Amino acid sequence: MLIESLQAFVAVADSGSFTQAADALFVNQSVISRRVQALEKELETQLFERNSRHVSLTEDGRAFLPYAQRAINAQRDGMNALKGRTLRKSNRLRIGFNHLTQTSASAKLLAQFHKEVAPSTDFGIVENDDELLVENLLAGNIDCAFLLTTDIGIVPASLNMHIVTTMREFIAMRAGHHLAEKESLTMEDVRNEEFIFPVRQPSPISSLTLREFARLPIQPKMRFVIHGGAIFEVLKYMDCVTCVTEDLVREAPGVVYRPFESPGRLTCLFLWKEDDIRPLVTQFADFIQS
Questions:
Q1: What is the pTM of this model?
Q2: Cα distance between residue 138 and residue 256, in whole Å
């Protein structure tokens, strides 16, 4: 049971509105809906009565609410206790990545900072989806984050934002794939293809290809999810494709890449809190912006 699902449930219960709960947690309303639905599925019960004008707790929802509140408070108290220990470690820097930025240009900047500027820095790496990284940054659970996104509008105004780079997206496939004959690919080319994804399926927020699927709207055919390190080996022997960011395009025997034609670019962002003036955070932010 994810703490984010409990937070969504309590926020809706407190406000009586999925929209107001989303505003309170700095996420889209659809995210709140998904988290509440996932919680209801896990608990095998309906927590809210929903109609077009009002949202109210069911009897099971009222019974579960105090337990959810205690779980959230316990998690917060535990984080605060650990945060106090962390703050005493002036060389500790907690950085959030999504599964794409952890292997792209931002990871190289991290290694360069450690080598050239602050070799004694103790890095704590947190991997999560973009929306959860933003939540954790606002809550103080991480010090900064790298996002790779199709929409910089997901970043709240209360966070500082620096554009690290922008890039295109490519479709990777085996050399004998029928799409390999094309110089570039459009949505019409890939809409009926089977996709495989590394670790977890990216969202329309982090993939230009999936953003175009969402606009149609249709769901991509996903064969299975596989660990990123093995994905190119799988591509050599199967008639499936995958999305690859421009900086990850590299020569691999039996694998070809074709640029995906899409308006806009993926944007790699570095985020940190405006009111965070701790020396190490400030030093790292200055380094990223230099």
A1: 0.66
A2: 40
CATH number of the domain within which 236 lies? 3.40.190.10
250 or 272: which leads in pLDDT? 272
Range of the domain at 284: 90-166+267-289
What CATH number is attached to the domain comprising 52?
1.10.10.10
Residue 278's region, left for phi above 0, alpha for psi from -120 to 50, else beta, is beta
- Rounded to whole angstroms, how far apart are CA atoms 2 and 226? 23
pLDDT at 249 > cutoff 70: yes
Which parts of the chain are beta strand (E)?
Answer: 48-50, 55-57, 92-97, 122-127, 144-149, 159-167, 169-174, 194-198, 221-226, 242-245, 255-259, 266-273
Q: Which residue has the tokens 């009897």?
A: 59
Asked if the model's pLDDT at residue 87 lies above 60, the reply is no
Number of independent structural domains in the chain: 3
- Say how many residues make up the chain: 290
Residue 160 backbone dihedrals phi, psi, to 5 degrees: -75, 145
